[in-house]
């Protein structure tokens, strides 16, 4: 098969996308269960709303009162509803075809809050007789004085047949806050007094009067309060007085509220131009954000009437007799409790995606699936693009299902608010959530830990939102700036957005109107929430990508400062090794020869070898008082294409550290290595495109089949169409996973040996130029092992393979050359026959007799070979090492025949030196050398 070359960006992205879609298909029921969670929560909210409707909204107390009345005089009583049959609470819901006429009232501060800064003392606050302050300013002080003098009247009305007209001649004020409607004015209906604001008052002057007809009849006490008109030279003084007098505006914390203020500007006889200040804070009812009425009309009428009297004389009056609501039909209580508690549940619903995404990312990290994909050519660009798009698609489908579910079952939270605003809000937040998951995944290495932390974040955000953030939002005294600071926490920003949706839905349902529209965007807090989420998404995405580059790619923390147009050299010349001169001189001739070969190759313009390691070293820093650990000691090695190089060595010799450096998991402490002419220190991304890896532990997706694994990695190697199908089929057959439906079973159901064979097939698919195999036949039965060796031997024809193993049989069958590693250093190198010839200059004689004849056997061997050495002895069985230069095989046979005639020999054998013997001998010699060196 022709070399397909490295896969393009789109090809690798397509491979990952197909793998993710297949993985998602395998987890279909998990996704269905995930999507059903918001459905169940929506059903739960509907049930709560139905229960609330039954017990509260539709209760008798929250409907217009009714009674059985004989309307026709025929003795038949019929049910009749009306305000006359209602209690005070029920009357609010009755129809009002002719709303009552209420006298217009001016909003004035409570006695204890009135401005006393211009008085000599504040003793009036104890008696409740402080005047009501009204400020004036303008360009013409003379005109201003006249207008302010005309503002207030001097009489309290007596009983009159036309009470409204009599009251209209006076300036009436109230400390009661207005309501949302004016069907029942709280200033009249409350137990608070109505004040007649006059220039002068008789002490404790008051006048009772009755107003209205049953059931809306009230007996009120009209009390006199002094109105104090004060002049200020400029409007800035007025603004300063108002601000410092309002609640916490005063540095000393004292309240000195002004009833109203007028700036007459350039008003003269030909121009009437006035600005009116009034306290607008009464229009909002705390956290419910229901807009109340404001008592502004009376302020406008007062200054207009005063100006008319200035122009036309004191006899001119423009009476403001009454304020009246529009006629009202019968209504019922429509409190949408589901909207009020909805933010808690929907915060949980949206944030529930966070643990799902985070656990998926940490799973790939924990199982080393991300790095194995990278080793087979999947770059950071395709991985980020497809993974992000994959999670975004799932998240968008999730929130769309949530909106459809909620609307279909009748939740006002979704139905009343504009769908485009809702979708825009959810869309930008799930983007932030995905970026946060990528960022936070760098903090965890275990899925369980990440999942627990994520669910604590999910439920904690919802609970803190409803029990902390919502109360602070509704507390008008809490600084708005700190609310914004709290919304920087992503869990609070999602809650605040849902809170705004809930408030608009609640008000819209209560008034029979729509919820939030785009025209309400700036009036609510949604604009600041949008800005916060967008900025945080951008910053989180940059931070996540930066940390990923450092952690997974081994980039320098300041890599973004490097010149992107500067190309790194394909390789670098051999470094001066002054510090290793002594160790070089003590190396074995074969190791020295390999080092000299590498030095010559590094000076050539083009490399003829697939892998060249040049004085590669790895030192682990010391910890807990321990000295640094030298894992690889200046390794120099050249492996041409078509050769399988075997690395032998005891555990801890440094083989895995060497493989990890060659595959990009570790950075060399010094030295370098060239793979296909590319430096592993600078060009690892390009090295990955021509590399295959069979790691020591199987790195597989449990739910993907063997065939799907090979299809994915084959696509990463740029195999397409029929070439891909053929390569997958040949790979499955080669590792004996094709027949019996094994290829289409999930890898999680494979045995350990089957997983091992699949890992080998993955490393070889696509004919990579370089393959690293770390103990590939571990856990295989003899038949499967032999079959796997045949596959590897066939694959090495155009590939350079570096293989680590503890099986001498495997090393002898597969490897063209062997290198024995001891304590991080290469002790010898050569093909198996050379090593056995070099280190195996003896025969091994084994003889088993009864215990009483052991001495005779030992004497017999000493006669044949005086320098023979006993290397094994147990229960009558003895092994002897006979130098080849001292004995002939025929002499050994003759000695054994002689022994048989003298005593019983149960078994005996003569063997040449095995590779295992060579390994043991070299390992012991190397360890002893490193101990004494």
Automatic annotation (TrEMBL):
SUPFAM superfamilies recorded: P-loop containing nucleoside triphosphate hydrolases
GO MF annotations, alphabetized: ABC-type transporter activity; ATP binding; ATP hydrolysis activity; lipid transporter activity
CC annotations in GO: membrane
InterPro entries reported for this sequence: AAA+_ATPase (IPR003593), ABC2_TM (IPR013525), ABC_transporter-like_ATP-bd (IPR003439), ABC_transporter-like_CS (IPR017871), ABCA (IPR026082), P-loop_NTPase (IPR027417)
Residue spans crossing the bilayer: 34-52, 340-363, 383-411, 423-445, 452-473, 479-498, 529-547
Subcellular location field: Membrane
ABC transporter domain boundaries: 611-848
Topology versus the membrane: Multi-pass membrane protein
Coarse class of the protein's main subcellular location: membrane
Swiss-Prot/TrEMBL keywords: ATP-binding, Membrane, Nucleotide-binding, Transmembrane, Transmembrane helix
Pfam family membership, one: ABC_tran
Annotated CDD domains: ABC_subfamily_A
Family: Belongs to the ABC transporter superfamily. ABCA family. CPR flippase (TC 3.A.1.211) subfamily.
Protein name (database record): ABC transporter domain-containing protein
Species this chain originates from: Capsella rubella
